[in-house]
Design brief:
The complex is a heterodimer.
Chain A lengths: L12 E5 L1 E2 L2 E2 L4 H16 L3 E7 L3 H9 L4 E6 L8 H15 L3 E5 L2 H13 L4 E5 L1 E4 L6 E7 L4 E6 L6 E5 L16 E4 L12 E7 L12 E5 L8 H12 L2 E4 L1 H5 L20 E5 L5 H4 L7 E6 L12 E4 L2 H16 L1
Parallel strand pairs in A: 1-4, 1-6, 4-5, 5-12, 6-11, 7-11, 14-15, 14-16, 16-17, 17-18
Antiparallel strand pairs in A: 2-3, 8-9, 9-10
Chain B lengths: L1 E5 L2 E3 L5 E2 L5 E2 L5 E3 L1 H17 L2 E7 L5 H10 L3 E5 L9 H14 L5 E5 L10 H8 L4 E10 L3 E7 L3 E8 L2 E5 L11 H6 L6 E3 L19 E6 L9 E2 L4 H14 L4
Parallel strand pairs in B: 1-6, 1-8, 6-7, 7-13, 8-12, 9-12
Antiparallel strand pairs in B: 2-5, 3-4, 9-10, 10-11
Helix pairs in contact in B: 3-4
Classes of the chains: A alpha/beta, B alpha/beta.
Amino acid sequence: MTSTKDISAHKGVWVFIEQFEGKLTQSTLSLEILGEARKLADKLETELTAVLLGENLADTAAELIQYGADKVLVGDAPVLANYRTELYTDIICKEAEERKPDILLVGASATGRDLAPRISFRLHTGCTADCTELDIDDDKKILVSTRPAFGGNVMATILCPDHRPQMSTVREGVMDVPVKDASRTGEIIILDITAKEEDARVKILEVKKHEAASVNIQEAIRVVSAGMGACTGECFDSLKTLAKELNAEIGGTRPVFESGRIPHEVQIGQTGKTVRPELYLAVGISGTVQHTTGMSNSKTVVAINKDPNAEIFKFAHYGIVGDAKAVVPELIDQLKAAKG
Amino acid sequence: MKIIVCIKQVPDVTEVKWDENGSLIRTGLPSIINPNDQNAIEAALVLKEEKGAEVTVISMGPPQVEEALREALAMGCDNAVLLTDRKFGGADCWATAYTLGLAVKKLGGCDLIFCGVEAMDGNTAQVGPEIADFLDLPLLSYAEDIKVGDGTVTIHQNLGDVTRVIEGPMPALVTCEKELNEPRIPRMDLVFSCFDKEIMVMGIDDLEGELANFGLKGSPTRLRKVFSPKRAKAQVEFLEGTPKESSQKLVEKLQEINAI
């Protein structure tokens, strides 16, 4: 464990980049963080470093510079091809102890949430999990991380004042993917990887890629979202028709997922996905913070709920007070009529 | 085989209510064993039945955490350890993992440590992996299936995009997912006898740690503020009338802003 002394020697913002088979993952989470980290590094007038571990990474490393990194630390070896907690932790901790970053950001993916705590324990530093907002305190020049807390019912702002690097994991879908700039230049640093296969205590016996989800709700332009108030009788079926009519994807709240009506891939909220579509139509959703955490940045929000005091109306631009069962079929008819 | 299960008593945050000013009412929430930790207990009890094991459940928190430990005994755990001390208060993930890790050492170690993936109130999923690092154990996280072989533990690990089968040597730390099993309800006969069992209590003096690493003082993170999430800036415009009329208005509005 490192001591807490001399934090002034720590400089620069690091981002751990996830890869799959040498390429950037299908999820844009790592790039979203890289884009946000670029802003933080600019505020601190410091360098942005991407940390990339895997195998056959030359093209991906160059791409990260185009996405905003000043430096890329590359650990390229067969033993790193598949993510393994301990090997990755060992390398990142060793580099961090030598190079002393001020901030280290990791995705709040399954991999990132496995890796980040192990690094933070070993470096004896704080890690704020699942952040939805990052900023720099103008006076103290330290990282200010905001995350949902208490089951997503409140937001908490957390600092790591006396330990370095300041670590956070970041939720998917809350930050923008940066624009690629082919003219950017930077430095690629190849790390000397000494780890061997026999050093890994945990062996990977099998890797099964999940079948790609048929819908990526985070890319949907329009989302029709169901709460339990839209699940009585045939109401849920008519929601599907409404979604089709709007050319929208269908999502929903945690209770609707738990009732088996929607898969987890399209559950929206604290324990599901964060979406920012052009149009978000919330039907029969009361608007618990658990849910609104995942949709409050949508461009236009429409809420249909029979309770005029429902929380969801505080997030909505347009509201209809009424029973989903009665309103949804009418809305389908009106949309059809409008199309002529 | 010795198995230690780390559990947390949590307020049932799915039951949260707000007062008329929109402030969270934190008091009066029922306390439960964190759901993922119930899966961890169940996994340990299944191994106990299949292979024979001594299952010890440990928890850090205020004295009332005893209730959660008694419930774990009533489910079938053999021993319970309560880590309670004012100086443990205000611990973040780092200091919590440090305290639990020291307790595991004090208990003489074990073959397997089971934790839930995450707690339903904090949702950080950090304490399990941090204990693994403290004790230098292989970490097998997000287990949806656990098999114990000859000196090894093999799990199905749900990593989001992929599911992996991974294997590590024991001792090891495993974090348990909801999909792993269906936690049993406490047995009636054990509910009565669990009150006769002694719960081992440990405080800061019982653990051989550095004082500066416990509780709030030992926590690298600091809470700056807690607030209710920001509301959408736009004021809601209610579209009134019969379902037909309000639907018609909505379609017009959405056409105006080119949302459809």
